[in-house]
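Morning run. Coffee first, then this:
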Amino acid sequence: MKKILKQSYILLFLIVVAVMLSACGNKTPKAYDALSKAFSGDSYTITVEGKMNLTGNGDETVTMTIAEKAENKYMEVKSSSVNASIIIKDNKTYTVLNDEKMYTVKDGQDASSIDTTGIKLSKDELDKMKTAAYTTGKETIDGKEYSYEKFNTEDGTDETYYFDGKDLKYIKTMDQGEEVLLKIINLSGTVNDSIFNIPDGYQLVG
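And here it is:
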């Protein structure tokens, strides 16, 4: 009887270990889970806030929104010195100056005017992140402690994603000693179609 019980305990132990190893092997980074929900489809909206030098007069707090839906693209930049947006739709590129309530338009899609580098991940980048090695830890930002996942990218930069539970709150990029910290204001796999329209009352110039 004791021998049978002992064998049963051993079998039970092996089953538990197998389940634990299986769970660990299938675990994907929280960063992948958060970003893939937004970037896996053909639509997304992301709004971030960070310190940037837009005018050459030093860093200022900048809020940037980038969105895409099918062939339509949108970027808005707001700070104490800039309040402008770029809209690409119907094979035209619109530059909108919100404070002046004016806009210009030119034929063609000037995709280079909307740079998503370091903000949006492509599907290939998401696939690599899903199985990439990463380290974890905790760090305090603005007096609050967050858990993080840190990845070393192929080009030598470090990408660190900070979470409050499962919610992505910050992204920090470290490239050749230069640090950029972005606060996530909004991250979604949907787009409000109205952002691709010129607001009422704005004047076409040029």
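The mean pLDDT is 85. Good start to the day.
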